[in-house]
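Our preliminary data section would be incomplete without showing what the modeling component actually yields. Below, a chain of 293 amino acids is followed by its predicted structure, encoded as tokens that our downstream tools consume directly.
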Amino acid sequence: MANKRKSRPLLWLGALFARVWHIRRVVFIAGLYLLITGWLFSGGSGIDVRPAEVYSVPDKPLWEDPDSVHWFGTTGHGKDVFTISRIAMATSLAVAVLCSGFGLLLALTFVMLFAFDQGGNRFRLIRLIGRTGFIAPPMVLLIIVAGGSGGSLLTVMVALIILIGIQQAPMIASWFEEGEEKFDVVAGYALGLARRDIIMYRDLPKVLRRLAGAFAVMIPWIMLAEMMLSFLGVTGNRISCGAMIAYGQHLIIEAPWMAVYPGVLASIVVMIFSFLGWRVSSLLRTGEVQRYW
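Predicted structure:
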């Protein structure tokens, strides 16, 4: 009788397919993220990305109204506003991804310093900091203005990372506390497993899963925060939709599309990322993500 057992590679392939099918919705949304991100970061080479240069007006402006070739019109130097707006949104997205990732990592690191303690009040300090979190945004803005010396994107990013770490640490701490009541954790204690093993192999994987949802939800928030700060002129001489709207106000009569259309693109992109973030958070059962702005 022939041996009908499947080979090990086929078994692995079948298990991989089953796993991917189980998380197919997350994979689909991740594909949309990659598609939009690739589109934002594609093209635009050779274009000056300093807003002061983009919005300077030569003696003989080369403005063109929006048409089928230049959807958002052109600048005074004849550059395509749509391409520049896409570069600006790519900058905002890059800042949001870096700040959200490092901010959540900072919060998780802070929580892990207390997670291995046995006491019921091990997260007391984190909760105390969280109660004063409402004063963090104005303090961070003060640090940006004072420390940026006229504007610095790096200063803004560091301040946003600290703000995210302060705000999200209490939420992550509550996830660890919720995990203590789960059946597998209680069973682990009953079986005599060490607390370190329970935290690292039972609690932490669940927290990381929910953390991915929180990361997706925070992306549009940080994009809005970056555009707001760039509108105020504290992010340095880098192109951003906020800076484009601010500079475009001076040309609202001569070339209104240079102020209006970047805002339209920013609104559409932020709404798309908000919807995708909500779907990821819902699928991963992240719950409500704390925020103060």
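Residues 195-232 form the longest helix (38 residues). Residues 103 and 161 are 4 Å apart (CA to CA). Preliminary results of this kind motivate Aim 1 of the renewal.
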